[in-house]
Each structure stands twice: as C-alpha cells, then as structure tokens.
Amino acid sequence: MSSPVVELPEAQLRPLLAAYDASVRTRRLHTLLVLACIVVAMALASVSAEVSPSRLIENIGRFPSYIIRLFQLENGQPAWTDVAEWFWGLPRWLRLLGETLLMAYVGTLLGAVGAFGLAFLAAANVGPSRWLRFAVRRVCELCRTVPLLVFALLFVIAFGLGPMAGVLAVVIHTLGALVKQFAEVVENIDMKPVEGVSSTGAPWHVAMRYGALPQVMSNFVSYTLLRFEINVRESTVMGFVGAGGIGQDLIEAIRKFYYTDVSAILLLILVTVAIIDTLTSKVRHRLIGREERR
Amino acid sequence: MPGRPAIDLVAIRDRHPQHFARFDRQRLLTILTGIAAFALLLFGMAQLGFFGGTLLSGSARLVEIVGLMLPPDPGSWAHARTFGVALLETVAIAFLGTLSAAVLALPVALLAARNVTAQRVVRFFSRRSLDTIRSVDILVWALIWINVVGLGPFAGALAIMTADIGSFGKLFSEAMEAADRKPVEGIVSTGGSHALGIRFGILPEIFPVLASQVLYYFESNTRSASIIGIVGAGGIGLHLAEAIRTLELQQTSFIIVLILIAVALIDFVSSKLRFAMIGRRGAMA
Asked: What is the interface pTM, i.e. ipTM, of the complex?
C-alpha cells in the first residue's frame, strides 16, 4: 500500500530541500550573531559592574538567612508567635504611613491640576500656539526624565528635611508624566464638538470647556488614579533621602539591622499598596464602564 | 426676529425636565466629591506643613539653587572622567539587570500563564510571588543585596534583576495568555506534545513582544540605576548624592545632564530596535 502522503520524486525534492536548508541556515546565523553581540556586551558590562559569580555563590546563603531573620524575634521565636512584639511600633508606623499617603495624595492632586491646564496647551490639535506647545513639552520631558529621588534630594536642601520636599518632588514628576498622557488623550478626541462650539463665536476656553472637556474627563481621572498608585509606591522610599514618610523608619531599620522592624514595615507597606491598588482599580473600572454605556 | 421660529421654552422644559434641573443626582455627587477632595487636600497641606511659611522661603532658596546650578560644569577634567566612568557603570548595571531578569522571568512566566500551566495551585503561587517581588521597591532590594554581596555595582545589578523578575514575569505571562491558540492546536493535532506546542506555537509568536518590553524596561532601568547609588549600590547615583550633599551644584547639574543624555540615547536606540522588530513581525503576519 502506498503512503497517503504524496511524495515528490527525488529529483524535484532535492533543490527544494536545499533551498529550505539555506534559508534556515541564514536565520540561524542571524540569531547566532545577535546572541554573540549580546554575550560580548554582557561580558563588557560585567567587568564594568564588578560582577563576581564566585562572590555571589560564596555569599548566596546570606540571602535566605536574611529573609529568615526578618521574621525572627530577638528570642529566636518566629515573629508571628508574638505579634505585639513584632508590631511594637504600630502607632508610629501607622502615622508615618498616613503621612506617606497624604504626600502621595497632595502631590498627585496638585500635579494633576497643573497638568490639566498645561495639557490643553501641549496638545497638537487644540493647542493655541506652536511655540508654547514646544516649550511645555520640553519642560515636561525634563520633569519626568530626572528621577523622582533626585528632585527630592534637591528640594531637601531648599525646603529642609521633611515631607514638603517629598510632596514637591511628587508634584513635579506627576506634572511631567501626566501632561504627556493628558495631551495624548486630548489629541485623540473627536474635534466636531469643539468646532461646533467655536462656530458659535465662543472663545478658546469656552470651546475647550464644552467641546473637549466632556470627552476627556473620565480618561483624565483614570490616569490620575493610576499615577496615584505609582506615587504611593514612590512616596514610601522618599524618606530614604529625608523627604518624609515611612521611608525614614524603613531605612533606619535596615541600616541598624532591626530585622523584625524591617519585615513589619514592609508588610504594612505591602498591605497599604494592595488596598490602594484594589480601590483605585475598582473606581477606574467603573469610570470605564460609565464611558462605554454612553 | 424674522425667519426664526418662536421657541416655546416652557413646553421644552416640561418635556425634558431632567435637562433643566439645576442639580441632578449625578451632578450633586460630582460636586460633593470635589468638595471632599479639596477638603482633604487642604487638610493634607496643613498636616505636611505647607502653610508655615517654609514654602515661600524655600521657593526663594530653590530659585537661588537653580541659579547656582547653571551652567553645568564638572569642575575639573578628572571629575568629568570619574562621572563618565560612573555613567558607563550605571548603563552596565541596567543592561545586566534587565537581561538577566528577562532570562530568569521566562520560566516563571510559563508557570503563571493560564494557557501554559493548567495546574491552578502552581499558577496561584507563582503569581502571588511575582506580586510580592514587584511591591518591594528597587531601593529596598538594593539594600538587601548589599547585605549579601557587599557595597558596589554588583548589588545594584542584582537589585534591578530581582525587581524586574516581578514585572517581566507578569508582562510575559500576560503576553502568553494573549497569544493565538491556533498554532498550538495545529502542533498538538499533528501529534506534538504540549511542550512542543509551547516551543513552536507560543514562543515564536510572542518573542517580538517580549523583546520590545525588555528594551522598553532597559530605558527605565537606566533611570533606576542612576539612583540606586544613593544607598551605595554603584553607578552614578553615589556621585550625584555626594555632589548635592556637598552643595557642588554645578557638578550636580552636570551629572543630571549626563543622565538625561544617556537616557535619551538609550530611548532612541531601543525605540529604533523595537520598531525594527515589530515591523518584522508585521511583515511575517
């Protein structure tokens, strides 16, 4: 019985197979070349970053032991056997967590209000002037590319140690990030309502208010909430440079090897971040749902 | 007015009362939320010391500081060289961290993807551990790794790697779940195993997506790598923090400009590469 698959005669098959092999070979060669480049780059980077596998292997045991010690009270018992001892600083930490949340809230809101005004100037379709747009965009790029902690460090010199430096750093960074996102939202709107309002002789700000704003508001709120989540995370480390919030206690605990304090503060931060994330994502989904029902 | 029909406002008002109500429920709710948000803002600003006069005096000092930062100047040729080397170290930290995280995250992502791992318990635990890794800040990871391998850029690279395993694991598994099911079914229908289905049905399809995510993270990690030096994990952050603390403000702005140039360069190259890859994928489809 012949096989169900029709096979080409040998003479026809050979050139086809050769062509297939050749094409596979070039692709393999390409992949190998890319891999070789990556390996060379990694080798160079390893020299620069002082990578030493032997040091890692020698000391890797310290990683799990550090994690284990985080959950071990001074008497050697696991931390959860004596929660009162583990979370001994709860009132103070909760107050600092509250301060952290307030920092993120004030920073996000002030940044969002600023971005709200600037976004209409930075959007290509409704912006009143090209030069203004260019200037706003470049300044915002600067604001979001410089890391948040660098702003915090600078503001600590100007405003002194404390949460205000942190809040202002959050404001600057939020402004930079949100103007870009807001402007993109504005650039995607339907222009007909704006034209309609303008055609009645309304000035620019009225056209924006009744033509553009209703289309962008829910997206603006959604992006702001997302930014709030990010800022809560960022605010928790602001204290590392003295700019307020729970970070100052966290870094002190890490530096002074108060192991259980580290785990207690980290757990509090994880829970807070998780709660904030769930709440904001609920609100965001409701907003998106309302948008779709329209 | 001639030619214009008289508008019977009363009739319209009677027909659509909801559009003429001064405050409908929705609007009232919006206004109340606004008031509450504003009150919380005022409370927060008062709590954080915004009304104490520091804001004004601080702003004046800030203007002064910005004035002293200009023009950017490394101070001496030796300083400029030190900063340049530190910048290269920063890029090296970001590169190593991003790449090793991508390699290590791939197997975890396989465990966390619904269409790859049928075992629900495994999936649950791999997802939760990715979430936990992601919620710990990169600076905290840096401090932990400093305890393991000592101060220096190696700890920084490990910190970026750890933090990114969390992000990549999530992104990669989402990319896998979004992949087309048909190639896998095709492979399984010819008698291929589940593993072969993943290797030849899912991975080739998602590879360009993964690579473009890795390139995107390389840029943002360069920014992270430029600050982990603040806690002693190598890179240019150490010099930056030092320059700010000793009020060498022209050096500070020089370093910031260096970082901005590096980030812009990497952004440019990575977006070119990403475009090339996604373009190739488009051509294949």
From this structure: 0.80
Is the distance from CB of A155 to CB of A212 less than 8 angstroms?
no
Distance CA B159, CA B155 (A): 6
pLDDT value of position B285? 34
pLDDT in tens, A20-62: 899 889 888 988 998 999 899 888 888 887 888 888 888 888 8
Is A43's Cβ below 8 Å from some Cβ in B?
Answer: no
**By three-state DSSP, how is residue A78 classified?**
strand
Contacts of B210 (CB under 8 A, 6+ apart): B102, B106, B171, B172, B175
Residue A228: which of A112, A113, A146, A91 has the closest Cα?
Answer: A112
Query: Phi-psi category of B235—alpha, beta or left, where left has phi over 0 and alpha has psi -120 to 50?
Result: left
Q: B154-169 as b/e, with b when 16 or more CB fall inside 10 Å? A: bbbbbbbbbbbbbbbb
Quote the minimal CA–CA distance from A130 to chain B in Å: 23
Backbone angles phi, psi at B24, to 5 degrees: -85, 175
Interface-testing mutation among A140, A149, A234, with chain B (most B C-beta atoms within 10 A): A149
Q: Which residues, in sequence order, are CB contacts of B168 under 8 Å at separation 6+?
A: B101, B102, B105, B106, B109, B213, B214, B217
Query: CA nearest A163: which of A109, A114, A108, A102?
Result: A102
| Least CB–CB distance from A63: residue in B137, B148, B259 | B148
Q: Do B132 and A146 touch (CB under 8 A)?
A: no
> In chain B, what residues touch A158 (CB-CB under 8 Å)?
58-59, 61-62, 65
Chain A (103-122) residues lying within 8 Å, Cβ to Cβ, of chain B: 103, 105-106, 109-110
For residue B40, with 0-12 CB atoms within 10 Å meaning exposed, 13-18 middle and 19 or more buried, which class applies? middle
Q: Which tens digit of pLDDT belongs to each residue from B150-193?
A: 888 889 999 999 999 989 998 888 888 888 888 888 888 888 88
- Are the C-beta atoms of A108 and A227 separated by less than 8 Å? yes
Question: CB-based contact (8 Å) between A155 and chain B?
Answer: yes
Q: Please give the distance of CA B266 from its chain centroid, rounded to a whole number.
A: 15
